[in-house]
Amino acid sequence: MRISTITTTVAVLLPVSVVAAPTLEQRWSSPSFWASHSGHVPSTPPTPLPPPSYNLSLSHVSIGRGTQNYTCDLSNSTAIPVAVGATASLYNVSCIATNHPALLSMIPGIAINLPLPSSSSAMSPINMDLAGHHYFLDATTPFFNLDTQMHSYGIGAFKKVNGTSAPQGAVIGVDGAGMGAVPWLKLTEKIGVEGSQKLKEVFRVNTAGGQPPATCQGQQESILVEYAAEYWVYV
Question: What residue stretch is flagged as signal peptide (predicted)?
C-alpha cells in the first residue's frame, strides 16, 4: 500500500523518539499529549496576525498540501486571474509543533516539492496521518472537514478577518519557481453556514507558493497553483 510521501519525508527528518510514539490515537489526538513528554504545548502560531480569541484552545496543527485555484476571463485581453478557492489535504503535525517548532516551519517548503497527495482508501496508511480536507463552499467561504473514518475533529465554514503578506524569503513555488507565497490569514467562524460548529478559528501561516500569474495572457480558463502551508485550528 502507498504511504503518504509528505508523512514519510517528515518521519525521516524526526528523531526516533518522536516517530516511535506509543499509539496512533495518542500520537495524533492533540498537542496536549505531547506536553506530557516535552513539558510544554504550543498555543499560538508564529505570526504577526491578531492572536486567537482568549476563550479558545488549540485543537491541532496541520500541514496543508494542495492547490490555490483561479479563473481567467479569456474574452478579456487585460484580465487578471481571480481567486475562486483552494483544495488541500491536511496532515496532523501537532507532535512536531510541540517538540520541534523550528522543524515545523520548514515543512511547507519541503512539502511543496513533493507530489500532490492522491486520494486513497479509508484503510490505507496515508489516512492514518490525514487530518482532513480543506476546500471552498463558494469564492469567499473556506471550509475545513476534519472528520474521517479514523477520527472526528470537527467541521467548519469560515471567513477571512485578517491577513498579511508572506514574509520576505518565503518559498515562492515548486522547485523555487513561481509567483510567490500566498498571504498568511486569520479565519473565524462564518455564522449561519454550518450552525453550531466545533471549529472556531483557523490560522494559515508559513505559506509556500500558491500565487497566480500576474495576468491571464497565455493562460487557460482554470489555473491551479500548487501550495503548502501550516494550519493552526482552534476550538
Answer: 1-20
> Per residue in 206-233, pLDDT tens?
999 999 999 999 999 999 999 999 999 9
Q: How many Cβ atoms are within 10 Å of 72's Cβ, its own excluded?
A: 21
Enclosing domain of residue 223: 5-234
The residue written with cell numbers 463552499 in the block is: 137
The whole-angstrom separation of Cα 61 and Cα 82 is: 29
Query: How many Cβ atoms sit within 10 Å of the Cβ of residue 5?
Result: 16
pLDDT tens digit sequence for 61-111: 999 999 999 999 999 989 999 999 999 999 999 888 888 888 999 999 999
- State how far the Cα of 61 lies from the Cα of 213, in Å rounded to an integer: 30
> Helices H, strands E: what count in the chain?
7, 8
pTM: 0.84
| Of 212, 203, 206, the residue nearest 185 (C-alpha) | 203
